[in-house]
Structure formats: structure tokens, C-alpha cells
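Page 42, continued from yesterday. The earlier attempt failed because a stray header line got pasted into the input along with the sequence. Redoing it now with the clean sequence only.
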Amino acid sequence: MLNFVLCDDNLNILGKMKEMLEILFVKLDINAKVAYTSDKANDILEFTNKNQVDVLILDINLNSNISGIELAKKIRKSNKEIYIIFSTGHLEYSLIAYSVKTFDYLPKPITIERLEVTLKRLLEDITFSNTKFIQIDNKTILNKSEINYIKKDGMKLVFCTDKKNYETYSSFNKFQNILPDNFIRCHKSYIVNTDNITNINTNKNTICFKDNVFCDIGPKYKNNLMEVFKNGNYTNNLDSINNRE
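This time it went through. C-alpha cells are written below.
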């Protein structure tokens, strides 16, 4: 799911833009939500630092001690891949705003027709980008980092995240070549995101994620998995490799 965040010092504009986006999510069949809106720059900065944010629509002229461009620079330091879309009634700011890797501009007053054009371009860019997102079916786009593991269930693949599981009729072969190196086959029926593993129990042959979510390690894949953790750099979130009952 794509998480949108909106920031504008005009609460009426914020409400209208949220409403237009939600209409377009349905019309374009996009698996997305407006996760947060605020007229305060500091609140936006705090939210983006603590939560997954994929798209930020940001007013340049904020009624604040920090401009939209300055806020974007702060956010860009910690989130290199976030899509930033500026809204403004002052087009002379456009060249300055592109210094923070701006995806698009929305001139005010923002119309639903213009917003739809931007959303379609955004989806096209995401579809052809293999860095951050993965498109699992016609309407579902996931941030790769939110996937804990992928499970083969008959003719289906189940993409398991902390919040929801997403199913699609497909095979491992379709996705293995477009997944980053931190996704490792650990079982004939599982591919795991090693960045999200919190614990490995080699006696029980289980891998644990947040909230005590588990998946299995297959005997055929166990040695390779342990070599990855021995020689690779995939232990940032790993609490322990437990070899005892």
C-alpha cells in the first residue's frame, strides 16, 4: 500500500485534497491511503521520521518558520526515495524546489483533473522502478521494506506484511529476479526479507518477525540461509540466532 502525507497551511485545501485523492484512489483502483495530514511542518517531519511514507504532497509557502522546501530537505536526508510533490500558487519557486528531487508540481488552485495526471505519472514511475516498490498485481503496489515474507500457497503467492496479507495468482519465478538481495529463499514455500527478521531458532527451524509472526526454514535451504547471516550484512534488526531449545 502506498502511504500519502499532505501538508498545507490551509486546512480547507488539506481537506479538499484528501477528498480528491480518495476519489482518485477508487477511480484508478490504486491500493493507497492518505495516512496523515497536517498544517504544521514540525508534525509532518515527526510523522515521516517515525512512519513509512511513500508520497508527500507539500505546500511551498507554509505559514511557519520553515518553508516547504526547507522541510523537504530535512525529510530527504532520512528518506532518499520518498516522492515529493509540491503545491504552490507561485510558479517562480519551481526551479528552487527541484533541488530536493521533486517529482511534480501542482499549481494552485489544484483541480482533480490535474491531480489525476500526476497520480498516473506516479504509478507509471513506480511500475518501472525496481528500487523501492514492487507491483504484485494490477492494483497493488507494496514498499519492499514492508514485506516480511512471501509464501507460496498453491497457485497463489501471499505477501505478508505487519498490517495485512496480499494474495495474487503467481509464482516465485516471476518475482525472484526483481527482489533485492535481502530477500532470501529459506524454504520451498517461503522467501524472507532478512532485514525484518528479529530471531532465528535453528533447532526449531523457525524465523521470527515482529509480533511473534513465524515462518519455517526448510532443511534444503538452512545452510545457505545461515551463510547469508554469517557473511552478509543482514543483521541490523536481528535480536539473536538461537541454537538452544
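Notes: DSSP finds seven helices and 16 strands in the chain.
Reminder to self: strip header lines before submitting.
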